[in-house]
Amino acid sequence: MKSDAAYAELNDHLNRIHQLGTIGQLLSWDEQVNLPEDSADQRAAQHSVLAETAHTAEMDPRLGEILTELEAGVSALTHEQQVVVKEARRDYDIATKLPAEFVREKAKQSSVGYHAWAKARAESDFASYVPVLEKNLELAQREAAYLGWGDRAYDYMIDLHDPGMSAAVISELFGELKKELVPLVKQITASSVKPRTDILRGFPCDAQRSFLHEVTEKLGFNYRRGRIDVSLHPFCSGTGSDIRMTTRFHEDEPLDSLFSSIHETGHGLYEQGLPAEHHANALGRAAGMGVHESQSRLWENQVARSREFWRYFEPRFRQAFPEQTKSVSSDELYLAINTVAPTLIRVDADEVTYNLHIILRFEIEQRLFAGTLAVKDLPEAWNALAGELLGLTPSNDREGVLQDVHWSDGAFGYFPSYCLGNMMAAQLWYSVLDQHPKLTDEFAKGDFTWLLSWLQKNVHAEGKRYDALALTEKVTGEKLSPAALMRYLRERYVPLYCS
Hints:
This protein has 499 residues and is mainly alpha-helical. It contains 21 helices and three strands. It is globular and about 70 Å long.
């Protein structure tokens, strides 16, 4: 078979696998948004059957034959085709090494785990969650063993989310960040400047929904190819032509729904910006979760917490909530938007202390996989580390070890992506400003098109050609490091709190 015909057949196989994956994403989205309370058992069975079907497609012997043929004639392939073949081979090797029974078991456990977590969190009952979490950890270790990672199971989990990363690389980056971040947090929290916590109360949820829809659409999200709903934990799923985002609402926390929506919009813009003609292969897939987080965090923080952003949106915010904002000055509002105050809840954390939450989880995960921390002892370890890093101790497990959804479906190794994304976002931000110094002036006019176009060209269009480390260096000219993030945090927050 000629290489062109073989490559076309490869993409036919990849498209089928991709479409099965999108069906799974819809099932998961519906599970967290619409599923009736007593329908969890059926959904778990559906996940199991679909996972088995997808796994059969992923390990189709014909797919292996095509890859072998293309690899034998690799010199006849373009560079882009070689990228597709390389990533398809990686995925195929993973699929063929995982037994079908294991895939079914893991898919079912993921659904069971989510509902067990939701119940345990609501009741602050970690003991009921222990068997589920122990099972998830055991499944993760078995998966790593199947794929030849031996005693490097945690590195395997990290590599799943951020190819090319390892615990050693992350430890070095986080160690550098921690040295500078902890003193900065102490400097800011010791300031006599304190945001008012009583000024954002009684904001009707319907009006919040309308305002955040206006904001996210203005940023560039295409609602003809996506939507936003409500879930227990905000998330974004789907690919290019069908993006499903969620947020959550509380009348006394209007900024929570707004900024979580902007965060998920960053994810959505990345997915909508990936090359549509390549959604089924590596050229149209995200480079990894660290890169994904760089997009969400850049829009949420560097853009949406800037003065220029609020010069444009503050009048609209006041128009949407006239009674609630009439006694709030612009300076008070801006300081509230950029509040720095340690909190126990990661998703409520300000962007200065947020990375300490990630360091906490990274250190916990390392100990879990090293076998030096038992699942049953997680609350004690979590609380101790929260006291050390945040200066706060959870009063119950709901505001401690049970607060995050990630471990419920075995997504170990995901948390570091948030902090890696923050580092990359800061480096991208300064690269953008160097090339277009008047960018923030455009924000003040409600124009975000230049930034989105730049990201689409320099990040989105690259698909999975590069991993996070290589992409960062290619786009910014510098290796990934905490330096730009620390520069950004000092430039934004020291003038607000320490001038």
